[in-house]
Structures are given as C-alpha cells and as structure tokens.
Amino acid sequence: MKRTRIMGILNITPDSFSDGGCCTDPVAAARRAAEIEAEGADIIDIGPQSTRPGHIPLTAEEEIRRLSPVLEEAAGAGLRTPISIDTFFPETADFALQRGASIVNDVSGGVNPAMAEVVRKHGAAWILTHTGGQPDAADQSRAYEPDVVTAVHAALEQMAAEAQALGIPKDKLILDPGIGFGKTRGDDLRLLLHGDAVKVAGIPLLVGASRKRVVEYAANLTVPEPLQRLGGTVALHIFAQMHGADILRVHDVRAAVQAAAVTDRLRKEVSSGSI
Description:
8-stranded parallel beta sheet, alpha/beta, 275 residues
C-alpha cells in the first residue's frame, strides 16, 4: 500500500465501550457516516454488536434488524466510501453485502466456511481477526508459546491459508492481530511494537487500538474514560504504522487521518534521503 488507510468506526449499538448509544438512530448513524467520509476515512466500519468485555450477545436476526434501516439511510446519503460490516454471522454479512457493503470485518477469531462462501459469492474483502480462541475473547487472556508475536503471526498465517483453501483470493484478505482480544496489555504492546514480524507476506495488516485499555497501560496513567484516550491512541497508532500496520481502525477519524499522513510523509522523506 502506498499510504496508510484509515477505517472509521461507526457503532450502532447502545453498549459499545466508548460510544454506545451515539448512533442507534438510523438518521444519526447515516449523518455520522457522512462525517466519517468527510473527515477522510478510506473505509466506514459499521458495528451492529458490541464486542466489549461483558457485552450482551445478539443473534444474526437482531443484528440485521439494527443494520437494515442504517444501510437504507446510508444508501440514501450517497456515500462513496467503502462500507465494512463488523460481524461474525454469515447471515448478517450476506444481508449487508447485498445492500452495498464490500468488506466483512470478521471478529470470530476463526475461518468459518459458511462466511467464506458468503465472501466469495459477493467478491468481498475479508478481515480475519486473531482473538486467542477464548470463549469471551475481549475479556480473557492466555499464555502464548514461544511468545505472543510468533504465535499470532503463525495463527494469522494459518487463517490466511485456510481462507485461500476455501477459495478466497489472497488479495481479498486483511489480517488483524486483535489488540485487546485474548491478550494481556503487555501482549498488546508487543504486537504493536513488532508488527513487521506479525505480518503475513503480501497481506495488509489492520491494527485497532483506538480508545482501548492498552492506551491507559502504555501511559502508566489512570485514564478510565475512553473518550479521554485520544492522544495515547494516536501515539500507539503512529508506532504501529511505523512497524508494519497498513490500516488503522479508529474512532477519531480526523486526527487519525492527519497523523497518518504526516507519518507517511516523514517515512517517505527519510527513506528517500531527502531529510
């Protein structure tokens, strides 16, 4: 990728960890989607279900019920930015891809053949996320052998191979190390610091640390309110960008777009010897 891409988060849930309830109304959600586009995002990631610790699980039918009016409003708004659907249900993905979405952000932590069939049918892109295989991945951690970086790289490589075996072209895959999913905060930092080693050759790496507890941990500060973690989020994402991240998943789009552009420019100037 010639530049770092920004994925803007649009949660349409009442219980997301940092912005739950802000966009449950379809008109408000479409308005926020238009703002995300105007702020410069390359992708709009719509989440009909929270994956925060202690979240209340929804069925595919409930996700679709939330999504339907939002996608209808978004279509009427004439958005040009590609839409991603944050789901692990093939039924939800199929519904959304029929209505203008082009990416599935799959947080299941595995490679579901039924999801692969949906993705292949629509020619969509597929984001596969490492979660550590925990029952409630956002609220559990485990020991990784020989270390978290090696283990996550191997797992992502295996997931990519399984997806390709199910007929998904390599250039339709994106891999996410799953910051905050099935990992300690120290694990999260190691993955951000060693993104180049986590990456699978030829496949973009997506990183999402936006407003997460790893910001508080890294700063060695008490910042319990996620909305107060913007500065730390930008710092971690810049570091991830410098170490292999190709796509950043963010809440604060305008700040992320600007920071990513500056970082890309500095990297280019340094590599060319201009500065």
